Every structure is written in C-alpha cells, then in structure tokens.
Batch of 2 targets.
Target 1
Amino acid sequence: MEYEIIQINERSWRIEDNGVRFFLLAGTERALLIDSGRNVNNARDIAATLTDLPIVLVNTHADGDHVAGNRQFESFYMHPAEEPNYRRGDRPGTIIPIQEGDVLELGGRRLEVIHLPGHTPGSIALLDVENRILISGDPIQDGRIFMFGPFRNIQTYIKSLEHLRKWQGCFDEIWPSHGSVPVYPDLIDRLREGAQAVLEGRIPGQAEEVFGNKIRAYKLGFATFLCDDTENTDPAKP
Ligand SMILES: [Zn+2]
C-alpha cells in the first residue's frame, strides 16, 4: 500500500505508512524527520519533497516499523540504550547518542528529549517546546502497545509514565506513532493505571497470535496492551 503525506500545520507533516506514522518538523534552519517508516525505504526522499532545509533524522526507538528508511542516513540521533535493538539484523549507520534533557534545535523550534523506557530500553518522546506538542512514539497511544518479546518491561513502562508528570502542563496535544492523532494528556494516566491493572492481574487477557507470537491481549477500551503469554499469564514475568 502507498504511503500518505498529511500536512498538519505550516511546518509539520505526518506520513502514514501502513499502520505507523512518522513526522517531519521544520524549523528555520533545519528539518527533523522523526522515525523513517515501516514499508517505505526512502523517507529522506519523501521529506525532501516537503522542505528545502537540511534534513536530520531522530528515531523514537528502533523497532522495525520505525527504522525502515534509516539506511538513507549516514548518522541519526537515537538513545544509546536502543542500540542493541537497532543492531539486530544488519542495520547500518552511526548513532549520535541523545539523552534526556538534550535539545534538538531546528531554528525557532526546540525539541527536548524525554527518555521513556519500557516499550523498549531507549524509547524517547520529543517535546516540541514552542508548539506544546509531545511526539510520543509508541508508549503513549490509543492503539496496540507491544509489550511482549525482548526489550520490553511493563514495570519500567509504568515508571516512565510517572516520570512524564514532570512535564505536565508543557504540552496540549500528543502525536503518537500509531492509533489516533492527536491524543490528549489525560490518556497518560489512563495508560499508567491500565498497565498497573494488567501487571496486577486485574484485567483478563485474551490469547492471540501476533506475527507468529502467542501473546495475551489486554483490551482496556482506550488502548490494548499486548503482553507475553506466560503459563500463569503473569505479564510481569520476563
Ligand atoms: Zn511502533
């Protein structure tokens, strides 16, 4: 299926790529591609049709549906805790490490890095400071949040959502990689409470198969957590 480019405002675009979206945010000096797609392998070329500014890439994390176009970049920003996830397979390129508190300056538009481990160890969100938008990657969304398999940790995920309270009041909208866009800050507490309920076994899960993995789906009504299907259905078990 073809991808679709949707302009959000004068300096922001989202590119819908078969169930995942990535973003292009322009400042006055440079443009930031946030993730590089699932099926497209030419995210950079797509971005270049939208802006004349130099284009740099940051990855919210390194799951396969967020890095397909990375090979068009010699280097890109990524949290260093994400490197083991990225280097599965033969994914090329140089990681420019970014940590929480780092700011990507686009010219009149600052993107502050917030570390949100749990979905993956190096998952980050980016706060578009001037525009009061949080680009959240996978941890905050109303679709299916993958919490099974290697690199996931639901306790760490819950801690990350608590940690995010530090930025409460700094954003009005959230632009996630999956599900609806935008979503709103009230979703964060609901996800935290939902994950806690899943962790404590207070929500029944349904057995499902996702990409050949037998998993357990916890449908909360506002999002679904997909967790390991351990024999005692304890999602806390690694
Ligand atoms: Zn994803």
Target 2
Amino acid sequence: MVNGLSVDVEDWFQVGAFEGVIDRAAWDALPDRVVRNVDEILALFAACEVKATFFTLGWVAQRHGPLMRRIVEAGHELASHGWDHARVFTLGREAFAADVERARKVLEDASGVAITGYRAPSFSIDQRTPWAYDVLAEQGYAYSSSVAPIVHDHYGWREAPRFAFRPLDGSDLVEIPVTTAEFAGRRLAAGGGGFFRVLPYAFSRWAIRQVNGTDRRPAVFYFHPWEIDPAQPRVPGAPLRSRLRHYTNLSAMAGKLEQLIRDFSWGRMDELARREARQALDLAA
Ligand SMILES: [Zn+2]
C-alpha cells in the first residue's frame, strides 16, 4: 500500500494561527526560512529514497524560482497551495478563481512543469464553498486534497467522505481528503498537524496501520517546512493556544518524520490520485 506524502510549502509567518498578529503587508520584511527548510526536507527525502508532493504557495514560488526547480529536478511533484494562504471560504467564487489561476501561472513559470494538484489553505473547502470544485475543474486540475472530514476549531467538513471521491458529476476531478482516525468516540485529522507533532509517534503509526489494514485504503500525510525548524523566529502577541500548537516538539519533528517515512511506503499525490481513480472510483462506478 503506497500512501501519499505531502509538504505544504509556506513560511513560518504565513500560518493561519498567526494571521491576526502578522500583517500580510509585513511578509516581505520578515526573515525567510522556507528555502533552508525545504532544502533540508529535500535532503531527508533523498536519504530515504522517497518521492512526495510539495503544495506550494504562489507567493513563495514567485520569490524562490530556483527552489521550485530543485523540487522538480529531485523527482517530486510541484502542486498548488493557492496564492497567499487565504482560506477558500473567505473568498467568493471569482476571488477564488483568480487566486488559483495566479498561483498556477507563477508555479508553472518558475518550474517549467504543469501543475495539476491543489490543496486549499487550512483544508478550507467545505460546505460553504459549493463552487470551489467547479473552479478547479474549469482550470484543468486533476485532483484536490483540500478536505478534512472532521470537526476542528479551525477547519473541517464533517459530512465529507473519508476517502477519495469525485465531487462533480461529469468531471474526472478527484478529491483526496486528509487521513482521519476514529479515536475515543471522536474523528481526528490523523494525517499530520498537531496529531503527528504533539502526540507520541505511536498514535500516528496506529492510525496509518488502521487505514492501510482495516480500511484497506492509502493514507494521506502532510507537514510544513516550519515544523522542522526549531530556530524560527517566535511570534509575540499570538494567542497562547496558537503558540502552544505551533511550537511544541519542533526539535523532535525531523526524527519522527524519518521514522514515519521508513515505517510505511510513500509516494506522490498525483500518482495516488490516479491509482485511487482507477482502483476505487472507476471500479465502483
Ligand atoms: Zn498551509
């Protein structure tokens, strides 16, 4: 069972938890950590001989063209994480279409490859954005991995399927939700984030074994470059809950990631989307 490995490429100051205290207009003046962190991730993936998908902000691609080319030259998939991390449900249909079009053009110009995958910032496609998949299909995306079928304080679409589905009639567009685990009567996003970084690694291993063994489906895992960076600048004035969530266990993250990569089989999201369409969706139809 080959699972999907993904990195959401944004810098430490672009996370949703800090949007109330860091002004977007200040971004260009803040210390850049994304290049060194992504290069470290590329080295880890090379050492583990694994390929992955890098869902990257257009804002980052515009400033770091050589990094985009290093990702592609190493055999990874470059995909879109939107322009500047505006969550989809805060945009209307027109603004969302402009956001994803602008991001894709800059990613394609920087890398020289076609962009066919999309991940919404903070898994922000949900019941409030019924137009989002129409926009992605119109713009030629093959798949999206933008849904968390859970309830969470920042995100979640409880009614969404847990595994790959086709959100539109008459379109091949595939949605691959982030992996969830049912634990103590709750459904949790078990494909990364605080679940992976804050809880002991054994929880994540258990969750992925459940998905692969009991559900017999591939897991989808994600992390961020800032999660492996204990030396990132600290954000004063952020809410305590955000700071706890953001800074816990950063120094242990790289070792945990290496363990995860070695304990399971991983690959790119575009390949996972094609396999899911063939093996799960087309056969069921
Ligand atoms: Zn993100």
